[in-house]
TrEMBL record:
Protein name: von Willebrand factor A domain-containing protein 7
Cellular localisation: Secreted
Cited InterPro entries: HMCN1-like_VWA, VWA7, VWA7_N, vWFA_dom_sf
Chief place where the protein resides: secreted
Residues of the signal peptide: none
Keywords assigned: Secreted, Signal
Length: 838
């Protein structure tokens, strides 16, 4: 629904601003659903003509939709988020505050933060129509007061009976008739029937005579009024006969608040919000980032590193869409910066040329300070290239860097100079607060591997191959990853499909590579010994053209005896992506999911893998997902088979292993042919986790807010856990909060931190909402975990006001039924899985 509404608004924007009339009514949403891929394809044709990077709209849409879905994960027990338990005023306030936050972020040019906030509020907007009795009363249009700090209507008092006991189909009419006749609003109460491990929640019981939310997991259906519920989340809900009406009105409400947002912020900011603004033409959606070590030890390498960096900048000028900006983040020791952002490549290369090597008081350097500074200001989907010749001494910032890089989908490539020199810190004097990390160790937990990048050694002969490597990177939107493995003497099998035109193979390492000898065996049995198109001591790059007769199973063998990476990509228009999905505990009997953004828990059993393919020539009939061991690139930890299949994807259940893995996907098409693709990012399971209670947090300026959190150790052994809490506004002090806990196996510990907003001194009178992001980073031995929460700070309290005139429904539409249609799995795959399907 959210994706369709965003595309609907995009088509309207293109008509109003660019006079493009061909997209009018193209979305044609039915019950909040549409042909997302077909609509995107039509819009992208017009964006190509306008020279607007197509990824901008796609990523904006995905961010808004994903953050909508995430509210069921992070705010599951917060009643106002879902309008549960008759929390109408609190829900209305929450939407209005988040609407203000979205506007404030747009006014500060923080467009991605605004999209996140808008995704948050849309979940609550849409839940109003599924969880309340708005549809049962007979309303066929959205509530006009939502998002405007207005009371939403006449509410049932706490003493008023709203539902009666019911059984079976009689539950379709379980709302007290007078409630409907008098246009009185009510919503269902929900209490989780099954209490999971470590879940220690004591929700308030349902008042006597109130409606339940409903569903097999809702314990309130056993108390007066018993028997059913009133949610319209799915076609199979008790009030599922009204699901389509609820979905249709919720869709109109989604567009209504998007229109209001457009009106409030204006054409240009709204265009930036959607990624369609006139000022974005011919500019990509991402930043180009250089992070450079300028300490004295780089003296013999700095000229080479600068030359490679300038080559990277020059290479990006060959792109159809140039970087949106250029970010240079130098780091030294004990200082780092200053960070510079340039709008032209000339300005950027001038800044790079000014760098020189000096200072540095010991061998390890402030690598993560340089990385974090850049990540905080870059655009979504950026490429970051870092240069250093020493370990990091500030690895205590690594969790924050991982969180930001994943959140902003940044790929990090590290060029390590003189990689054989500084492996041991030895007798280097380090401060007690330092956390040293050898950046040349590639174990799946290094920043490059986590973000889908690599670590490559460089020397004075590296310039030409580095240029080839960068040029290959520029084509990544055309390339589909087939193999991404690390090890020595790698022996790997892969499938060539008919869509592949060329293989591009990169063999890279932070160690010196002393031999080539790469061998390819075709499906016909023919053996190829390709010659590198360019090579250095640390990298070999190959290009292998393909013929139609090459379709079938191939083998690649690398005889190299030191640890190295093999990345094999193919030019192809077929893409398949597999992502971890978390099953939501909810009130319906359907499988409902949200994309897992944090690390999975070792042994976790309520996770799934969702595979979606685009541009398949035929329907797929089945598939497998392979869990590939990252320590041995040819080793398969487990093979997952589908539990549900659609023509363009499938769903698999996964029991999370203890060790790191990558996801490799093989799909079987109707004609018996195979498609293979692989995810580059490493998935690193952990045994520790964090839950932050009572989200979201709201506070008035000059007041304090307490955050209650619980740390979990799901492993058998005791752990010493370190917690760092930082926030974007620095309200928790510039260095944040540092705490340590000893947690025995299979147990948890709870604690509280307090944030005081008196430190905010620059709140203008025009600011209606200040937002702060608080990042919780925890670590224990080799385990890490990150989570982030939002805090809404309002300079003055804005109360709800009465609407000038409450809407009245047409009487003849009250309680009308609808035809229940079977929900197609393909549609669920395309749109995503929700706790609330409206």
């Amino acid at each position: 629904m959210t994706e369709c509404a965003v595309l609907d608004m995009a088509s309207e924007y293109l008509k109003d601003i660019y006079n493009i009339n061909s997209l009018e009514s193209i979305v044609n949403a039915q019950y909040g659903r549409c042909d997302i891929q077909g609509v995107l394809k039509a819009i992208n044709i017009e964006l190509g003509k306008l020279k607007i990077d197509q990824t901008r709209l796609f990523m904006a849409m995905k961010t808004i939709a994903e953050e909508n879905r995430n509210r069921d994960r992070y705010e599951f027990e917060n009643e106002p988020t879902h309008f549960d338990g008759e929390t109408f005023d609190d829900g209305a306030l929450l939407i209005s505050r988040r609407f203000d936050a979205a506007i404030s972020n747009v006014n500060s040019a923080e467009y991605e933060k605004s999209r996140v906030e808008f995704g948050y509020l849309l979940h609550t907007v849409q839940d109003f129509y599924s969880h309340s009795n708005w549809i049962e009363i007979g309303y066929g249009e959205p509530n006009k007061g939502i998002g405007k700090y207005e009371v939403l209507g006449k509410y049932a008092s706490k003493e008023m009976r709203t539902c009666v006991e019911c059984v079976g189909n009689s539950c379709r009419s379980n709302i007290v008739p007078s409630i409907l006749q008098n246009n009185v609003l009510t919503s269902g109460y929900f209490r989780l029937r099954v209490v999971g491990a470590f879940l220690d929640t004591k929700p308030k019981p349902k008042p006597v005579g109130k409606c339940s939310h409903g569903g097999v997991l809702d314990a309130t259906i056993s108390t007066d009024a018993t028997g059913g519920g009133i949610n319209k989340d799915t076609l199979t809900s008790v009030h599922g006969h009204l699901h389509q009406e609820a979905a249709s009105v919720a869709y109109d409400a989604t567009k209504q608040i998007l229109h209001e947002f457009w009106k409030r912020v204006g054409n240009e900011p709204f265009g930036q919000f959607l990624g369609l603004s006139e000022s974005l033409r011919n500019i990509s959606s991402s930043s180009l980032i250089i992070v450079m070590d300028t300490t004295g030890s780089m003296g013999s390498y700095i000229a080479m590193a600068k030359q490679i960096a300038i080559t990277i900048v020059d290479s990006h000028q060959t792109l159809e869409y140039k970087p949106s900006n250029y970010i240079l983040s130098p780091f030294n020791d004990p200082e780092w910066g200053p960070l510079t952002t340039s709008l032209t490549p000339q300005e950027f290369t001038n800044e790079i040329s000014k760098l020189s090597a000096n200072g540095g008081d010991d061998t390890p350097e402030l690598y993560y300070h340089g990385i974090l500074d850049a990540l905080q200001v870059c655009e979504i989907g950026s490429s970051l290239y870092a240069f250093t010749d020493a370990p990091a001494k500030d690895a205590y910032l690594k969790s924050q860097a991982v969180q930001l890089a994943k959140e902003k989908r940044v790929t990090i490539t590290l060029f390590y100079a003189g990689s054989s020199r500084k492996r041991q810190t030895g007798n280097v004097q380090t401060k007690v607060t330092d956390v040293i990390e050898d950046l040349t160790i590639v174990d799946g937990n290094d920043l490059s591997s986590i973000t889908g990048g690599i670590i490559m050694g460089i020397n004075s002969q590296s310039l030409s191959v580095t240029e080839d490597y960068i040029i290959n990177r520029l084509d990544m939107h055309k390339l589909k990853p087939i193999i991404f493995a690390r090890g020595n003497q790698l022996n790997l099998t892969f499938y060539v499909d008919s869509s592949m035109k060329t293989l591009r193979i990169e063999v890279t390492s932070s160690y010196a590579l002393t031999t080539t000898g790469l061998r390819l065996t075709k499906s016909s049995g023919q053996i190829l010994m390709p010659i590198p198109s360019s090579q250095t001591q640390f990298a070999f790059i190959y290009t292998v053209p393909l013929e139609q007769s090459d379709v079938g199973e191939w083998n690649i063998f690398s005889p190299i005896t030191v640890a190295h990476n093999i990345e094999l990509n193919a030019i192809s228009n077929i893409s398949c992506s597999s992502t971890l999905q978390k099953q939501l505990v909810d009130s319906s009997s359907d499988l409902n999911f949200v994309t897992l953004t944090s690390r999975p828990i070792q042994g976790e059993k309520d996770l799934f893998v969702l595979t979606i393919c685009d541009n398949l020539p035929l329907d797929l009939i089945t598939g497998e997902v392979y869990l590939m061991d990252t320590k041995d690139g040819s080793s398969i930890s487990e093979i997952l088979t589908p539990i549900r299949v659609s023509p363009n994807g499938f769903l698999s259940r996964i029991n999370v292993p203890n060790d790191d893995f990558r996801l490799k996907t093989v799909v079987h098409l109707k004609d018996g042919s195979l498609i293979q693709r692989q995810e580059k990012r490493i998935i690193s399971p952990t045994s520790i986790a964090l839950s932050i209670d009572n989200q979201p947090y709201y506070v008035l300026l000059n007041e304090a807010v307490s955050m209650n959190y619980t740390l979990y150790n799901y492993g058998q052994n005791p752990l010493r856990v370190t917690l760092r809490v930082n926030d974007a506004l620095g309200l928790l002090s510039s260095s944040g909060i540092l705490k340590a806990y000893d947690i025995v196996g299979n147990s948890n510990v709870s604690d509280t931190i307090e944030m005081n907003t008196r430190q905010i001194v620059d709140a203008s009178s025009n600011t209606t909402m200040i937002t702060d992001s608080v990042l919780f980073s925890i670590a224990a031995l080799n385990f890490e975990y990150e989570d982030k929460v939002s805090v809404y700070i309002q300079p003055i309290d804005v109360p709800l006001t009465e609407q000038t005139e409450y809407q009245k429904p047409p009487r003849n539409s009250a309680n009308k039924g609808s035809t229940s249609l079977l929900m197609q799995f393909i549609l669920m795959l395309s749109v995503g899985f929700y706790r609330v399907y409206v």
